[in-house]
Amino acid sequence: MSKPPRLIFLLNSAQRRLQQFIAAEQERAARAGTGAPSPAQSGVLFVLAKEDGATMGRLSQALDLAPSAMSGLVQRMEALHWVERRASDVDARTQQVWLQPAGRVLLPALAKALGRINDALFDKFTPSELQTVARWLEHVQTLGDTDD
């Protein structure tokens, strides 16, 4: 009988390696003279490219970040003039985030970098295998969500 895979070790190691790979892509972008948003900042830009004017809550949900972390992230992005935060016309208590031209100009380079990362991640795996990996990772995301 073979030993089961060391999933916790493999997941932690893979996460560290992926972060290093993403950092190398960020460095490449910086050397090319474009801004180098963090992975979380890139996520905000990608969400806003599809849902400009998304609420802070929607961004938190889309990126799986705590609202307090999202607030600081958006504040830093506002300082770079990548996004603008405004009160909703419908409910002044709700803040919406809008993509600004300086943020929009970053999207093509970010999409290219994301393509390189995905190509490397998908290499040597069949679509069926990738679906299994995705299903397992989605399962891991739900751990602890139950009220047992």
Fold and architecture overview:
This protein has about 150 residues and is mostly helical. The chain has a domain at about 40-105: Arc Repressor Mutant, subunit A. It is built from 7 helices and 3 strands. The chain has helices at about 5-30, 40-50, 55-65, 65-80, 100-105, 105-120, 125-140, and strands spanning about 55, 85, 95-100. Strands 1-3-2 form a 3-stranded antiparallel beta sheet. Strand 2 and strand 3 (about 95-100) form a beta hairpin. Helix 1 packs antiparallel against helix 6 and helix 3 (about 55-65) crosses helix 4. The radius of gyration is 18 Å and the shape is globular.
Strand order of the largest sheet: 1-3-2
Distance between the termini: 33 Å
- Beta strand count: 3
Low-confidence stretches: none
Radius of gyration: 18 Å
Task: Quickly give the structural class.
Answer: mainly alpha
For the largest beta-sheet, the strand count, sense and barrel status come to: 3 strands, antiparallel
CATH superfamily descriptor of the domain at 38-105 = Winged helix-like DNA-binding domain superfamily/Winged helix DNA-binding domain
Count up the helices: 7
Global morphology: globular
Q: Name the beta content range.
A: 5-15%
Overall CATH class of the domain at 38-105: Mainly Alpha
* Sequence of secondary-structure elements: HHEHHEEHHH
The CATH architecture of the domain at 38-105 would be Orthogonal Bundle
Could you please say which CATH topology of the domain at 38-105 applies here?
Arc Repressor Mutant, subunit A
Mean pLDDT: 90
The proportion of residues forming helix, as a percent range, comes to 55-70%
